[in-house]
Amino acid sequence: MSASPSVSVPGAAPRVGVWLIGARGSVATTVVAGCAALTAGLHTPTGMLTETPLFAGSGLPPLTSLVFGGHDTTDCPLPKRAEALAAGGVLPHGLPAAVGAELAAADREIRPGGPLPGETRTPDELVAAFTADLQDFVRRRGLARAVVVHVASTEPAPTGTAPPPSSLYAAAALRAGCPYVNFTPSTGLDHPALAAPAQSAGVPHAGRDGKTGQTLLRSVLGPMFAQRALTVRAWSGTNLLGGGDGAALADPAAAAAKNAGKERVVTDTLGTAPEGRTHIDDVPALGDWKTAWDHIAFDGFLGTRMVLQTTWQGCDSALAAPLVLDLARLLARAHEAGLTGPLPELAFYFKDPAGEAPSALGEQYAALAAFARRLRAGARETTAPGTAHGTPEDR
Questions:
Q1: Comparing 16-210+318-394 with 214-315, is the CATH topology the same?
Q2: Which residue of 4, 24, 69, 250 sits 20 to 30 Å from the alpha carbon of 243, by its own alpha carbon?
Q3: What is the mean pLDDT of residues 15-44?
Q4: Which stretch is the leader sequence (predicted)?
Q5: Are 113 and 21 in contact (CB under 8 A)?
Q6: Which class in CATH covers the domain with range 214-315?
Q7: CA separation for the pair 173, 180 (Å, rounded)
Q8: Where are the domains of the chain?
Q9: What does each C-alpha distance from 57 to 53, 376, 394 come to in angstroms?
Q10: What pLDDT digit, counting tens, does each position of 159-190 carry?
Q11: CATH superfamily of 16-210+318-394
Q12: How many Å apart are CA 263 and CA 236, to the nearest integer?
């Protein structure tokens, strides 16, 4: 993970880029620091399905092969950002110093994003600049491929026809021939102007808005009520969070984009829309920590009225980082295998999956397990270096 040009080592795994949009944010910093900690043997890969027996032999790129870079509109260096996260209890004490070289190397690969204040470049010029940055990263670091993962703060849903910033980054990923993941509720690849380019780009892409906490729980509880034939009358939720995400979601339009995914999971898993809404409150003092409450009113036998209440308290960055690493590796492997277009098999990770996919977590896990078996079969069929591990028809 050094900043020097890559040197080919016989027998070494091809190097794979992970290009993070919002590369100096809490999630991205935790991703880079976490990957360095895992490869150094400082911590175990808790929360990473790609490091479990489920994906053994699937041909995923090893963590040691990942090279990080990205775009951001802020200039706080990653080592300094990591120190702030450690002070807040997000990263383990002492970890920023232990992986300082890796953080600094990734920081040197971060390029200015946009639009910046007073921006004079047109959307097309921004996309061209972002594309050039990606292509330069791949070429200069000698990468087999790079996966673009959007982890920037949530933006409001667009109100006009102009593509929002997240869609400009998505367009750049397509032009550069890079697999794409949108881990946020922002528009990204879902803008109408990108429908045709996404279809013709020949790269895999996966979902929108990572499922890390409250919605993860909802995707389990919703099917439980439906399968037990219990009538849910109302489902209300409240989120308290701080940090950059809390500040971004203080904007009602951004919060609406976030809440839409949370409420959609309830409706999809129950088969009906119960009463109740989800609310998000910005509490700066909480920093990267989040508390989510759910109040579920339901009817049992003979109309007996009952209530289930849940409380989820977690750290957003620590919940998201292992999923981002999973998805980067899975998209890189899918790209290597020649898979293109949406990957509904990865619905397990998203509030809003790509393509046609089930909403219940159990069914999503079954689809993910089948995907792992397919990748494993393709890896066994490899007969020579560079041989594809499958074709789009294999899906």
A1: no
A2: 69
A3: 98
A4: none
A5: yes
A6: alpha beta
A7: 7
A8: 16-210+318-394, 214-315
A9: 9, 6, 18
A10: 889 999 999 999 999 999 999 999 999 999 99
A11: NAD(P)-binding Rossmann-like Domain (3.40.50.720)
A12: 9
